[in-house]
Amino acid sequence: MKAFQDCYPMKYAHCYGCGRENAMGLQLKSYWNGVDTQAHFTPGMQYSGGVPGHVYGGMIASLLDCHGTASAAAFACRERGKDMTQEANPARFVTVSLSVNFKRPTPQGVELCMRAQLLGVEGRKVRMSLCLLAGDQVCATADMLAIELLPEAP
Ligand SMILES: CCCCC/C=C\C/C=C\C/C=C\C/C=C\CCCC(=O)SCCNC(=O)CCNC(=O)[C@H](O)C(C)(C)COP(=O)(O)OP(=O)(O)OC[C@H]1O[C@@H](n2cnc3c(N)ncnc32)[C@H](O)[C@@H]1OP(=O)(O)O
Predict the structure, then answer these.
(1) Which of 40, 77, 92, 129 is disulfide-compatible with 84, CB 3.0–4.6 A?
(2) With a 6 A CB cut-off, is 22 part of the ligand 1 pocket?
(3) E strands of the chain, at which residues?
C-alpha cells in the first residue's frame, strides 16, 4: 500500500517528521484504516522526556502533526471524489492549529499508533480529531486544523 507521504511531490518531501527525502528525519508513513487513517512509529530511546522510559511530549506532538497533515490531504481528496494515492500533485496542507492533550505517560520501546478521524472539510480547512495509542492505551489526543496551500504557494 502506498503511504500518503509517498504521494507528496519531491518539492514537499523534505519534512523532518515525514519527508521521504529527509534522511535524518522520522519518515513517518500514514495510511487508510477504513474511513479513518493511521500511522505507526517506534521512537528511539533518544526521544525520552525527563524520565527515561517515557516519550518526550514534543515528539508526540510531531507524530500527531505529521500524521494530521497527511491525513488532511487524504481526507480532502476523498471529499472531492479522488484517491490521493492516484494523484500526481495532490492537495498540500499545513497545520495552523494543533491542541494536544497528554492523557498519560507514553511508554518508550513500544510501537505507537496515531489515528486521525475527519470532523469536517470546509473549503481549504480540514478539521480532525487525532489520538496516539500505546497498545490499547490512549496516551494523547489532539484537535487539529489544517489549511490547504494555494497552488501558487512556494
Ligand atoms: C504535501 C506536503 C505538505 C507539506 C507542505 C510543506 C511546506 C509548504 C511550503 C511552503 C508553504 C508556506 C508556508 C508554510 C511554511 C512551512 C510549513 C512547514 C510544514 C509544517 O511544519 S506545518 C506546521 C507549521 N505551520 C505553518 O507554518 C503555517 C503558517 N501559516 C501559513 O503559512 C499561512 O497562514 C497559510 C498558508 C496556512 C494560509 O495563508 P494564506 O495566505 O494562503 O490564506 P489565508 O491567510 O487567507 O488563510 C486561509 C484560511 O485559514 C485561516 N487560518 C489561517 N491561519 C489560521 C490559524 N492559525 N488559525 C485558524 N485559522 C487560520 C484563515 O482565517 C482563513 O480562513 P477564512 O478563509 O475562513 O478567512
Answers:
(1) 77
(2) no
(3) 30-33, 36-41, 93-102, 112-122, 125-134, 137-148
